[in-house]
Amino acid sequence: MTEATLMDIDLARNKLLARLHDPAEKALVLLRDPAGHEGGTVRTLIEEILGEVPQAAWAPVRKADRWASAADRPQFPRERDGDRFARWSQVRFAEQPVLRHPLTGEKIDLGEHGKLREIELDTLKAGSLEHFRHLIHRDEAGSVDSWRTLLALWRFGPEPATSGDATGLGELWRYLPADTRIPDHTIWQHLDLSSALTGAFAGDGQGRCALLNVTLGPVQELIAAARTTSDLWAGSHLLARLAWEAMRVVCERLGPDAVLFPQLRGVPQVDLWLLEQGLAPELFAKEPWNERTVTDANPLFSAALPNRFLAVVPADQAEAIGRAIEAHLHEWVAETAEGVVSDLLRAVNLHTDPTTPAYQQAREQLAGFPEVYWSAVGWDEIATDANGEPEADRLAEALRPFYEPQAEAPGFLSSEAWRVLQRPIEVIDPEAGTPATFYRPNPGVLYPALYELSERVMGGVKATRPFAAQHEGGYRCSLTGEVEWLTHDRSHLDLPPGQREGHDTLWSLVAKRHPSWARKGEHLGALAALKRLWPQRFCRELAGTLGQEQTPRFVVSTHTMALATSLARAAEEPNPAGGLSAEQAEAIRNADRVALPRRLAQRLHHLEHGELLARLPGWVEQQRESDDGDETAARQAIRKVTGTEAEAYYALLLMDGDRMGAWLSGGDGTTIPYRAAFHPDLADAVDTRFGDHTVLQAYLDTPRAVSPARHLAISGALNDFSTTLARRVVEECHHGRVLYAGGDDLMAMLPTGDLLSAMRELRDAYSGTATSGEAEEEDAWCRNGFIYRQDRLYLTMGSQATASMGAVIAHHKTPLTAALAELRQAEQRAKNEGGRDAFALSVLKRSGGALRHVGRWAPAAGIDEMSALRDFAEALHANPEASRRAAYNVAGWLADLPEPDTLPPEDGVAGYLEAVLHYQFCRQGLEQQGQPIHARRLGSLASVSPTGDELSSAAKIRDRLSHLVGVAEFLARETRR
């Protein structure tokens, strides 16, 4: 435990009280347990963990519970005695277990898995108690360790597996609702928010809290400068590590639940920190990152954190925490860079003298890196009045400078939601005839405006960032071209590139002894050196932290990725080495083993000839790069082993969730009405009793305001996608490798043959929709925004969330910088030309020229464009002799394509294209006469723009169809050279 947390034992106890104030099984004991939900397990756990609780300790907890409840869900009328909610508003979840997707309102009925009421109440409570007792941590004297117990309850409370599923609920344990009437957010999200607010209230001298918004930069500059896939991975992973170091400051002071976005539970890097904090190692025994060896197949090597976060902090500590984040990050970078310089000097047997110029260069070049932007908005300070009631006037004054000055109510305060939410809603029960308050606002309902203000302030902070001039005198870094390269002798900085070899510069010495750190001729500055050595330093750090033997850490090369499909095909042969000479086979078996895609490595591990296939890419690279190598012999060996020419092309994929800002802020039609969050039984009861209540019906039809639970749900969905679902699609279902997965952003490398199916499955996994038409398995399904796989239920972004993807297919010898530039342009084409929810494919041919196609994920005129492209490519692949002739003939007649307005109206552009394409495809044996399957789909797609608008120019139609057919023909080839 750190010094900061040692000083905050009382704070930890307050947060524990908040985390224990409601039982996890609340949804299933309500209306069933005579002890009430605040008796039973809650009372027992509080007594065992906290002992006697002073009455004063409950004050911040009650305030936090009220605010959290109001921020996340409406209140409901109580009966006349005030003890129970009105009977008509009660939902018996055990009998009607329905969950609502928090972003779409779609429901998933769990009743099909058996009546939850069949689980005995005593069994459920005993299992829950056993589960939480298993998480209590004690010190050497046997007393409860408040800090470690708090961390254990946060991390493993929602995990059913830690207790062997003593509750009998399985995956439902993770999704038990906080309120059975509004089952779109979980009890865990409510407890997280209650604990976070309690920590902020208890930690502030006046019981106030604030929202702290933090962003790091630069992002693109850090990732983009890359000559190898290792550089690409290192930039992304280093950025994610910097993000964690920033969040770590908040976590160590206030606990990880203080971070609302992103959701940190289950992130491997955060789990390592929990181990450092002293959590029992056996709790992590089944975590996938807890492997015996440190390799890049380990989830710890995934860059899974975004460069921004939002936290709830004590108002009087917000500024201090913001400055502490800046100081910690700059200190961490300085120490890490100093270690990199020392590693370089030691590697070439140079003294690590502090006066060596490289140390000073690193300090100067990385001063102020990364850029840290933060803003703090006081929740109590500008959103409550003297009585603790919601106060919108001061909030309006704070928001007004960011909007038109004449705006009477800026931002959220002018929304339909706030017009309804700012006043209580009174109803009269038509049966009992008694008045009741259906809804009453408290400051929690102003969370959307507070979040909006924090985002606006952050924008202003970024716009006013200071710039510091930096003097650089010598030749520049080979990778970035912006700063001097590091040196142990400043006179070397004046040497032009062609005159450095004979002078034993730092980098020429490094290139000779550690070619993985620097290629011949490369001379790197501080940031580039930090990226280049980051894999080695991170691997060393993991080996020390996990107590495991260090193994080399590699990233799959573009050449190896190109060969992956051929190697997988060769693995099916009984004797793929049969055509090799004994000398060749021996040479291959003795070659260095390079990194392979995870799925391929696992496949080859169990084969008799797997070792030879695994070492083939390394041997080929040796033949190509060494002075005495024989590249011709290498190509011949690949042909003998794989049965085909060596594949020379690979693919890069870049995915970005659409309108993420709108999803977080609730804008642009991303929210659902309040009634869509209600349990179906409650929705029916409200409509039956109050169908003519104008104000109440207006409330129910109002788009639901942004809430902390919504942010936690979005963050949790993105966390599951980036850490689990995306990796499964790319690395387990295909032969690819994830290079970066931070929330809605994803970059991956794949064999060319896997590209289209991986893109489709990633799109499905992001929104939790089975649009690919694949049959569901009994133990794996995808519906209504939920994915069930390998005994785990995952919440996704839902059917209304869309994503855009760019992909580039490039020769493995194409400079990576050029491939990355095309990749980013492809992603932008998907968003701009495709109108989002689109994909863009680029083919960079080695011989020159490029093919570019933009399509939509959503079907147009009943046609799924990705499926049409994929099916046509498969048809061409099945008839290889016809494929090139078909593409050539189509390109030939396209030159004489008439203008659309000259075609007969009854045929139209689509009909004309279908007729001509069908004629050509029949000639090549791709279609049967009268069955224009591919011709009809391609003709319809080529006649409209990616957004579905009819094309009125023959030139545009020609370009669209020629690129569509050209991409399909390229993908259909057996191999590409």
TrEMBL record:
Report whether Nucleotide-binding shows up as a keyword of the record. Answer: yes
Instruction: Give the matching Pfam families.
Output: Cas10-Cmr2_palm2, Cmr2_N
> What protein name applies here?
CRISPR-associated protein, Cmr2 family
Q: Which PROSITE patterns match?
A: GGDEF (PS50887)
InterPro entries on file: Cas10-Cmr2_palm2 (IPR054767), Cmr2_N (IPR038242), CRISPR-assoc_Cmr2_N (IPR024615), CRISPR-assoc_prot_Cmr2 (IPR013407), GGDEF_dom (IPR000160), Rev_trsase/Diguanyl_cyclase (IPR043128)
NCBIfam families in alphabetical order: cas_TM1794_Cmr2
Q: Which GO terms describe its molecular function?
A: nucleotide binding
Keyword annotations: Antiviral defense, Nucleotide-binding
Question: Which species does this protein come from?
Answer: Halorhodospira halophila (strain DSM 244 / SL1)
Q: What is the lineage of its organism?
A: Bacteria, Pseudomonadati, Pseudomonadota, Gammaproteobacteria, Chromatiales
UniProt GO BP: defense response to virus
The GGDEF domain sits at 691-844
- What's the superkingdom here? Bacteria
